[in-house]
Amino acid sequence: MFHYFKIEGSQATARQAAELLRSVISQQRVPYTNQAGALIDAVRAVGEQLIAANPVELAVGNIVRRVLHIIREENLSLATAAIAGVEPISGK
């Protein structure tokens, strides 16, 4: 994905990777059940392609791991709220 144009610097590379992952997540059609699993699989697949395209740039892997962590954390908080029978507070 980074083959088509050259991105200079870790910050610019990380920003582009984050924007790409955001668009992948927003365009992802997830099933009602196991939404987090579907998102994790999609982010992991794109992340592997990004890392393979530029394995020297460590910022891409860091961004992918952060996004995966956020998805898992949000899934855990939603599951905890569902078990407790509480309506989750939206951060929006």
Automatic annotation (TrEMBL):
The alphabetized UniProt keywords are: Cytoplasm, Initiation factor, Protein biosynthesis
Supply the InterPro entries for this chain.
eIF2B_beta_subunit, IF-2B-related, NagB/RpiA_transferase-like
A Pfam family the protein falls into? IF-2B
Q: Which GO terms describe its cellular component?
A: eukaryotic translation initiation factor 2B complex
Question: GO MF annotations for this entry?
Answer: guanyl-nucleotide exchange factor activity; translation initiation factor activity
- Output the PANTHER family linked to this UniProt entry: TRANSLATION INITIATION FACTOR EIF-2B SUBUNIT BETA
* Stated family: Belongs to the eIF-2B alpha/beta/delta subunits family.
Q: What is this protein called?
A: Translation initiation factor eIF2B subunit beta
- Which species is this UniProt entry from? Salix viminalis
